[in-house]
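YM 10:42: HSF-type DNA-binding domain-containing protein sequence, as discussed on the call
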Amino acid sequence: MDRNGTDSATPFLTKTYEIVDDPSTDFVVSWSAGNNSFLVKDPHYFSLNLLPRYFKHCNIYSFVRQLNTYGFRKVDPDKWEFAHESFLRGQKQLLKSIRRRRSSHQGNAGTSSHGLGVEYDFDGEFDEGAIVVEIAQLKKEQENIDREMEDMKRRLELTERKTPTDDRFFWLH
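YM 10:58: structure's back
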């Protein structure tokens, strides 16, 4: 069921289906020959022109992450071709059977990070819990970086102290 308690497809899936099914976008994205997957033929054009028209972003990697949360898989690792058993040409009613998978590390489903770690769903709403977790992770990373910097400074100072002695050794021999 969706947020309204009805049994319908999510906006992300509906919009994705509309993009793929639109004959005017076939030069960029279209159904495969078997009608059981879709192929993004021009990822650059897709990002700059189609994604912003349907979603609140233009990041193809966020789009792919979202596909992954719904269980889509890449058909060929060298192509932008994606498939899901319930994402079929002429079978739009099957979209409602596609469910988001839960994230194993944070428990957030159907989110993408937009490259910054801040979690948003494709309806433009942000996930406060994910933001809190991300802030905690960033603080830990910053503490680790600070420790590494202090260690590097210490080693540099030790190296600089040793250098004059080492230079004298080379000049004497």
